[in-house]
Specification:
single chain, about 25% strand
Length: about 400
């Protein structure tokens, strides 16, 4: 392991075109799960200049119609804040092309008298946790998210009317002896009101960067980049088409850990791309919280239609206080990692997903209604007992 290096992660705001699509797709998931906790959804969204296309496969109540889905898409765009000539929640054309889930897929996933519910697809999923921040997330991504979250709150409150919905951030940190010590560069690109110059936007952004970073961590002025192209008035889907599932690194660990390749948004929790990735984060976070390691990566793998995971792999990156093979056995003992077991343990069959669509699925506080349940550290005592 290198002890001194630079590492960079990026984030994007809720108004980024891909995130607009993620939000709409997850709003569809929530609508179906609110009506039927066992509904199946695989929803993809595309957006471009005043056009939204929603497609995919569903199984759920017929009461959820194309008209109701169009309404929730418009509501999502309105909540983000798009009322621009090129992308407006009221005026955009919305096309809904959802059809029934394939019977071939359903027969492999559904439980029966002879088998438990199987995974919704094959694949590999990773979870990660580390001690770089209080929420056990990699520091560059944590600060990149926080900059944009704070800017979005200011925009929604009316405090910063000059900010538009579309924005990106990027934070590079210097690590010494394996720990982050300061930022060496910060990049923020934000859509803005036409009346503002690049210098104006720079000074509007500055306090949010300073507030997000620890005291004394701000980079040199020459490495602070705000709207490097000089102008960012045309933004959102009017400036760049968006698709569901294109920001998988932003959604997870900012490149600090492996990624299995499967996106989360638009998928109900029978899809292990989503639920098993949440379970892997949950286990990794509890491993670090239990003082078993400073860093932990967990890989799970599944086959479509098969309930049990094919593999469980743990890497403690040389920081472990316990044997990794022994830890793998303990993790399998403290949590049922079948699709049904994961959903039951984390209470995933409820409408808690639209809120995950921006600023990362991990490192967020658990919520009273079950949102971000995978961020709890309630396995610590059981894990320690299993290892004793």
């Amino acid at each position: 392991m290198r002890s001194s290096y630079l590492f960079t992660s990026e984030s994007v705001s809720e108004g980024h075109p891909d995130k607009v699509c993620d939000r709409i797709s997850d709003a569809v998931v929530d609508a179906y799960l609110a009506a039927d906790p066992n509904a199946r959804v695989a929803c993809e969204t595309l957006c471009t200049t005043n056009r939204i296309v929603i497609a995919g496969e569903v199984r759920g109540p017929d009461a959820i119609t194309s008209e109701s889905i169009e309404t929730l898409a418009r509501d999502a765009v309105k909540a983000i804040g798009y009322e621009q000539d090129g992308f407006h929640w009221r005026h955009a054309d919305v096309a809904v092309h959802l059809h029934k889930q394939s019977a071939d897929i359903a027969q492999g996933v559904d439980s029966s008298a002879s088998k438990d519910e199987g995974a919704g697809d094959q694949g590999i999923m990773f979870g990660y946790a580390c001690r770089e921040t209080e929420v056990l997330m990699p520091a560059p991504l944590y600060y990149a998210h926080r900059i944009l979250q704070d800017m979005a709150r200011a925009r929604h409150s009316g405090k910063e009317s000059g900010f538009g919905p579309d924005a990106k951030s990027q934070v590079t940190l210097r690590y010494e002896n394996g720990k982050p010590v300061r930022a060496t560069s910060v990049v923020v690109s934000t859509q803005h009101a036409e009346r503002l110059s690049q210098a104006d936007v720079r000074e509007l952004v500055r306090p949010y960067v300073l507030a997000a970073l620890p005291d004394g961590w701000m980079c040199e002025e020459s490495e602070f980049y705000v709207n490097p192209t000089g102008r960012f008035v045309i933004g959102g889907p009017d400036g760049d088409a968006g698709l569901t599932g294109r920001k998988i690194i932003v959604d997870t660990y900012g490149g600090a850990a492996p990624h299995g390749g499967g996106a989360f948004s638009g998928k109900d929790p029978s899809k292990v791309d989503r639920s098993a990735a949440y379970a892997a984060r949950y286990l990794a976070k509890n491993v670090v919280a239990a003082q078993c390691a400073e860093r932990c990566t967990i890989q799970l793998s599944y086959a479509i239609g098969v309930a049990k995971p094919l593999s469980l792999y743990v890497d403690l990156h040389g920081t472990g206080q316990v044997d990794e093979a022994r830890l793998e056995g303990a993790l399998a003992a403290v949590m049922d990692l079948t699709p049904r077991g994961i959903r039951s343990h984390l209470s995933l069959n409820r409408p808690i997903y639209e809120r995950t669509s921006a600023y990362g699925h991990f490192g967020r506080p658990p919520e009273a209604d079950g949102g971000f349940s995978w961020e709890k550290v309630d396995l610590v005592d059981r894990l320690r007992a299993a290892l004793a």
